[in-house]
Amino acid sequence: MDYHTSTFNQAFALALLGCIIATAVVSIGGYLRRPHDLSAVGGSPVLRSGIRGWYFENLQPIEQLCVRWGIRPAYLSCAQLVGSVLVVACYAGGLVFTAGWLLLGTGTLDIMDGRVARRTNSGSLRGAFLDSVVDRFADSMAYFGLVIFYRNSWVLWAVLFAWLGALMVSYVRARAEGLGAQCKVGLLQRPERYVILGFGTIFGALVEHITGTWLPAPHYWLVIATILVLAVLSSLTVLQRVLHVWQALGESPHV
Amino acid sequence: MSEGKHRPESAGKAKRVVGTFVFMVGAGIVLDSSAAWPGTVIMLIGMVLFIWGVAAAFPRETVTQPERDRHATAAATRPTESNL
Fold first, then answer.
1. Which of A81, A226, B3, B55 is the most buried (most CB within 10 A)?
2. Which phi-psi region, left, alpha or beta, contains residue B29 (left: φ > 0; alpha: ψ -120 to 50)?
3. Which residues in B lie closer than 8 A to residue A105 (C-beta atoms)?
4. Which domain holds residue B30?
5. pLDDT digits (tens, 9 = 90+) for B65-78
6. Are B27 and A16 in contact (CB < 8 Å)?
7. What pLDDT is stored for residue A8 in this prediction?
8. Which residues of chain A have a Cβ shorter than 8 Å from any chain B Cβ?
9. ipTM confidence score
10. Domain count for chain B
């Protein structure tokens, strides 16, 4: 990894960190101070209903624009596909901060396509199928980018483990639903994975530039910590889902 | 909010959100690579979008009904060439 930390980069990274924290405090704080009905938003231990509500409120005007301009959900899925390829390119090129933002962007497109389909009443089986396929591809692309980024380090194994966990979380749900069981439980579902990896990457890049390279390689230790957390929590989620489906299926006869 | 000023709740929010995102993508290019110019241009585009969004949400002067009535009364009682 050949990058240098100059005084300009340190100051710029510090300014960006301050900018992100200030924006988050003002925006989320302002949202949470107003009364909201969050019963329809849902929530999880990682992404609370307040944060989800704030996120959806910010997403709403963009969805309205998509509806007004006639942007179909399939176009958003295609944009997600292109975005996920850009994420790989950014990781491979060492643009870690940009990769984090693009990752959050592709995650947002993943959520928006379904919401636009519901708004325009244009949901279809073909759309659902395309969405699922693109989601798997985009999910994998993020880890593929990290594999390229950490190809010469032990972190590669952690990335592969986290990648396996992400694929298994999705596979267990798909298989369970194929057998007629509901499986929406789990600590780390896709939105949570996007948020953790996205913000882990963003703050990891900033902290790396601010603190410099005084730590031995591999660099971007906050990104490494995020990958390790994802690897462990994804595996726990798989276990959680397997136990849930095992109990839900009970003693059903073989089909 | 004072009377006579109107501030739409979500006016310009799409521009502000997209502007912030574009700005951050550009900032990442400046931060992590030697391609400072493309990154700066992308940052500027994001900044313009954000400011445009903020301007759209800024309180605007609008004519309220009492003001409209007052203007109408003033126009009706204003001396014209015909009633002088």
1. A226
2. alpha
3. 21, 25
4. 9-58
5. 666 677 667 666 66
6. yes
7. 87
8. 3, 9, 12-13, 16, 20, 23, 58-62, 64-65, 90, 93-102, 105, 205, 209
9. 0.87
10. 1
Give the pair of three-digit tokens for residue A177. Answer: 């639903």
Active site residue A135: yes
Higher pLDDT residue, A232 or A34? Answer: A232
- B60 shares contact with chain A (CB less than 8 Å): no
B13 has a chain A CB within 8 A of its CB: yes
CB contact under 8 A, B31 and A65: no
Partner-chain residue, chosen from B13, B18, B30, that has the shortest CB–CB distance to A12: B30
Residue-range domains of chain A with CATH: 7-249 (1.20.120.1760)
- Let me know how many helices (H) and strands (E) chain B has, helices first: 3, 2
Q: What is the pLDDT of residues B41-58, one digit of tens each?
A: 999 999 999 999 988 877
| Model pLDDT for residues A11-29, shown as the tens digit of each residue | 999 999 999 999 999 988 8
Q: How confident is the model at residue B79 (pLDDT cuts 50, 70, 90)?
A: low
Interchain CB distance below 8 Å, B13 and A90: no
Q: Model-level pTM?
A: 0.85
Instruction: Dump the DSSP string for chain A.
Output: ------HHHHHHHHHHHHHHHHHHHHHHHHHHHS----TTT---SSS-HHHHHHHHHHHHHHHHHHHHTT--HHHHHHHHHHHHHHHHHHHHTT-HHHHHHHHHHHHHHHHHHHHHHHHTT---HHHHHHHHHHHHHHHHHHHHHHHHHTTTSTHHHHHHHHHHHHHHHHHHHHHHHHTT------S--HHHHHHHHHHHHHHHHHHHHHH-S-SPSS--HHHHHHHHHHHHHHHHHHHHHHHHHHHHHTTPPP-
